[in-house]
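Lab intake sheet, docking and co-folding queue.

SAMPLE TYPE: protein with bound small molecule
LIGAND NAME: pyridoxal-5'-phosphate
LIGAND FORMAT: SMILES
REQUESTED OUTPUT: full 3D complex as structure tokens
PRIORITY: normal
SUBMITTED BY: R.K., bench team

The fields below were copied directly from the construct record.
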Amino acid sequence: MIENIYKDLGISKEVYDFTERIAESLSERFKKIDRTAEYNQMKVIRAMQKNRLAEAHFQPSTGYGYNDQGRDTLEAVYSDVFHTESSLVRPALTCGTHALTIALSANVRPGDEIFSPVGKPYDTLEGVIGIKEQKGSLKEYGVSYAQADLLPDGSFDYDAIRSKINSRTKLVTIQRSKGYDPRPTFSVEKIGELISFIKQIKPDVICMVDNCYGEFTEEREPSDVGADLCVGSLIKNPGGGLAPIGGYITGREDLVEQCAFRLTAPGLGKEVGATLGLTQSFFQGLFLAPTVTAGAIKGAVFAAAVYEALGFECVPKASEERYDIIQALKLGSPAGMIAFCKGIQGAAPVDSYVVPEPWAMPGYHSDVIMAAGAFVQGSSIELSADGPIEPPYEIYLQGGLTWYHAKLGVMKSLQEMMNAGEIKHL
Ligand SMILES: *Cc1c(COP(=O)(O)O)cnc(C)c1O
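RESULT FIELD (auto-filled):
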């Protein structure tokens, strides 16, 4: 039966047998992933129960959104999940970049310095900080930026970090996920070590973690190991695929209050901000987020195991621990990347009939290919793949609302690689 339905979906017996063997070999690994999901599921349920979540909280608010108890309860639930004092979780935080922009700009003043001890931050933040020339950047407001690069092996350069922290260093920004850079993703434990080191040098510095793609991949979050602020996007892990928009900021009460004043207006803060009927999706997405994240991690591990077995270089390797949901696969040729993306697109529930093509995306110096057939535009907790068509011809795969969908995506990608002659035999 199951072989037949895969056949209907365009998977040959050869690809089915090969990937099935690999999936079976991962069962012990998957048990561990499920155990983390189980813990995080309990953490979310406990937070919802503690805050007496009720059906009435799903009522939409309009206008100013005063006394929106659903919104206030959602933020209290986030604070309990992350073990923090205060949170902002709202549709008015339009994406991860926006949430990070608010967290940064709200907590620095002219003359202050932002410091990244983990190399260059995510692409979109370069313009925000002013690393790259951009109208409205923090640099225009007299905020400077310093950076310590990672050592060649991807570890922290503690000497450089010590030398760059100075009297003006106000906020340290730490990106948990490698994002689309060739460096390791940091475990929560490693982030904790880094924060302790920094706080020994300068105890009052604000440590902010860009938590995008990392939520619920481990039992602890950076806020459990000393981060003053954690920031992320709701169209990634914590939205569970159901949040149609949004971002979150969680952490120390005084810092989150600054964020609320920057997001709305000084003096108004968290009190205003209508939720327009989105609160239920935010709650339900958070409820599903631990298992959705587990499905995405299984997909990433499976992809690495399949492509490693065929001799492709994968980062992280199939056997490595995971601290985010991103899988890089060095496919080695433009044709390989195009075939791979065709497979991911062909496995999608939405826009499956579309054939992705490389295009000159603004901000990139080479053509970029992207595959995504998502319910929510740009959602990268949903199965998606992308990469610039340039050496080393690396594709980034992430997401999958369910393990079975992620599995089909990887199977289809392999099928398309074979159809294109990029892989000759299994
Ligand atoms: C996705 C991401 C962002 C930006 O989030 P958007 O919602 O795309 O604006 C920032 N940092 C990291 C590490 C990310 O993965």
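REVIEWER NOTE: The first helix runs from residue 2 to 8.
SIGN-OFF: pending second check by T.M.
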